[in-house]
């Protein structure tokens, strides 16, 4: 059991084993593949990059020209089906057991992030991770009749540090409508104002996803923003209660499917105005994302910079730490994009080093706990009644005592102390405790009575009241007697 570094202070979770962030690379198919520059290893896990020497820098220079990256998998010419099996299936399956999971696509614009995450909406065969994850969740629910599992979804877009609800029930007008805020509470992080939709079947979830995709496109026209310049987070919230009512634990989890904004550095091409602003926000949020994930993997780090940008803040309880984390880096296979490809692969290999400690989010259902305790209590009382009747004890009441019963015990205690009662019969634990309690009551009453009687007879002097003491001493020395000041003084 351990308290998590990245959030939920209220409850503890069972620890899993340490695990690395999984980093995959997906290469976008092309007829113009740079065979002399990009080479795949036979294990389908490594990729080598060979950059031709920049002759403008002179014949002899120390510029590195060869890189070798070892990842968890290199997906080239991979079908959507294979990508899902390799990348997402396990994380989604584990979400049903209470593990948060985050799957994100990283890479330059056009490299295939949205294709990987959402897929081709018009072609079912080419659907991406998102619809497949929803399918898997609902299929697994059917396979688990022992649990009552609820599924909710939300779709958030972050553009230039502004939050947009892609599933807002209100007509889409723009950012001025009820600005959303990221709020943290003991249960975790949530986005105030973001609509979360209960979906009881796959079809509902699909139509929400479709609505979100449409809103994303509409918003990009009405607001004149490029959809590849925003981060989109589709979240599936799972809550599973056992149908066995005696089971008080329940689990919650989130699956975040993140389509990140294009990672290309536009600065070099002399961009300005809106494009520059977008690029600045994206560069910042992507580097904060990297910093946060790396900090989470560092055992020695206590402070994780989540609040530096909306992306990491919104994902606070779903990044690294106790989650299953999967990164898909989308790259081009063409020579012209090699520099960006290289930078994307470097990002992937840095992420691969980060370790996480996936843990189950387990909570207790307070209502069920009370009900179960009540049941248990009733059962124990019955058990006692049987026990008493078997041992021929007169019917014993185990309920809390009322005032009359307490007064009776008080009287018994007094009579016992006076000697008019020889013994007090033992009935049950509650009664024994009350007898002791009444001894205390009688004792303190008697002490008060004694003190009152003494006060009537003697004057009591505070031993710190030096003026009174010296007056008394003077008085006594006149009488030729000496007494200690803290003793009782006679009149
Ligand atoms: P990104 O979201 O990274 O900007 P997209 O996913 O929109 O890129 O991809 C750009 C274009 O390339 C789209 O038309 C998409 O359908 C196509 N595409 C990307 N990856 C693949 C792939 N693996 N197979 C077929 N088409 C792809
Ligand atoms: Mg895209």
UniProtKB/TrEMBL annotation:
Keywords: ATP-binding, Cell projection, Cilium, Coiled coil, Cytoplasm, Cytoskeleton, Flagellum, Microtubule, Motor protein, Nucleotide-binding, Phosphoprotein
Gene Ontology CC terms: microtubule
Ranges in a coiled coil: 363-390
InterPro entries reported for this sequence: Kinesin-like_fam, Kinesin_motor_CS, Kinesin_motor_dom, Kinesin_motor_dom_sf, P-loop_NTPase
One protein family per Pfam: Kinesin
Start and end residues of each Kinesin motor domain: 20-354
Gene Ontology process terms (BP): microtubule-based movement
GO molecular function: ATP binding; microtubule binding; microtubule motor activity
SUPFAM superfamilies, per database record: P-loop containing nucleoside triphosphate hydrolases
Keyword Nucleotide-binding found: yes
Top-level lineage group: Eukaryota
Keyword Transferase: no
Alphabetical list of Gene3D superfamilies matching this protein: Kinesin motor domain
UniProt xrefs under PROSITE patterns: KINESIN_MOTOR_1 (PS00411), KINESIN_MOTOR_2 (PS50067)
Binding-site positions, ATP: 107-114
Subcellular location(s) of the protein: Cytoplasm, Cytoskeleton, Flagellum axoneme
Bilayer-crossing regions: none
Family of this protein: Belongs to the TRAFAC class myosin-kinesin ATPase superfamily. Kinesin family.
Subunit description: Interacts with HYDIN.
Free-text function comment from the UniProt entry: Essential for normal male fertility and for progressive motility of spermatozoa.
Name used for this protein in its record: Kinesin-like protein
Taxonomic source organism: Cricetulus griseus (Chinese hamster)
Lineage: Eukaryota, Metazoa, Chordata, Craniata, Vertebrata
């Amino acid at each position: 059991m351990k308290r998590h570094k990245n959030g939920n202070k209220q409850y503890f979770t069972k620890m899993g084993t340490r695990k690395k962030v999984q980093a995959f690379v997906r290469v976008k198919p092309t007829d113009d593949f740079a065979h002399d520059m990009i080479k795949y290893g036979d294990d389908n896990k490594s990729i080598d990059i060979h950059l031709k020497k920049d002759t403008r820098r002179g014949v002899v220079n120390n510029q590195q020209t060869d890189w070798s990256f070892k990842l968890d998998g290199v997906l080239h010419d991979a079908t959507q089906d294979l990508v899902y099996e390799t990348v997402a299936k396990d994380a989604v399956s584990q979400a049903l057991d209470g593990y948060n999971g985050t799957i994100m696509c990283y890479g330059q614009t056009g490299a295939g992030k949205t294709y990987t995450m959402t897929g081709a909406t018009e072609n079912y065969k080419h659907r991406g991770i998102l619809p497949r994850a929803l399918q898997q969740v609902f299929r697994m629910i059917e396979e688990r009749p022992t649990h009552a599992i609820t599924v909710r979804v939300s779709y958030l877009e972050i553009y230039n540090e502004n939050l947009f609800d892609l599933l807002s029930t209100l007509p889409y007008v723009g950012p001025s409508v009820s600005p959303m805020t990221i709020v943290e509470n003991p249960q975790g992080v949530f986005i105030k104002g973001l609509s979360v939709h209960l979906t009881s079947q796959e079809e509902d979830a699909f139509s929400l996803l479709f609505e979100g995709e449409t809103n994303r496109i509409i918003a990009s026209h009405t607001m004149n923003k490029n959809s590849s310049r925003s981060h989109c987070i589709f979240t599936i919230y799972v809550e599973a209660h056992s149908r066995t009512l005696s089971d008080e634990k329940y689990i919650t989890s989130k699956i975040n499917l993140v389509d990140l904004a294009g990672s290309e550095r536009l600065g070099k091409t002399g961009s300005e105005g809106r494009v520059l602003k977008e690029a600045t926000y994206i560069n910042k949020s992507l580097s904060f994302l990297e910093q946060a994930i790396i900090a989470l993997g560092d055992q020695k780090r206590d402070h994780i910079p989540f609040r530096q940008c909306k992306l990491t803040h919104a994902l606070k309880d779903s990044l690294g730490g106790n989650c299953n984390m999967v990164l898909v880096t989308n790259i081009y296979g063409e020579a012209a994009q090699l520099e960006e490809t290289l930078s994307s692969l470097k990002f992937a290999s840095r992420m691969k080093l980060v370790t996480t400690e996936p843990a189950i989010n387990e909570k207790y259902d307070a209502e069920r706990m009370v009900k179960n305790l009540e049941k248990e209590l009733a059962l124990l009382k019955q058990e006692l009644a049987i026990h008493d009747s078997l041992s021929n004890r007169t019917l014993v009441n185990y309920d809390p005592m009322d005032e009359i019963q307490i007064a009776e015990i008080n009287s018994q205690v007094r009579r016992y102390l006076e000697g008019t009662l020889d013994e007090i019969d033992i009935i049950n634990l509650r009664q024994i405790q009350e007898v002791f309690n009444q001894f205390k009551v009688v004792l303190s009453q008697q002490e008060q009575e004694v003190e009152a009687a003494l006060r009537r007879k003697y004057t009591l002097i505070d031993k710190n009241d030096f003026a009174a003491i010296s007056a008394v001493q003077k008085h006594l020395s006149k009488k030729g007697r000496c007494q200690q000041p803290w003793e009782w003084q006679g009149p």
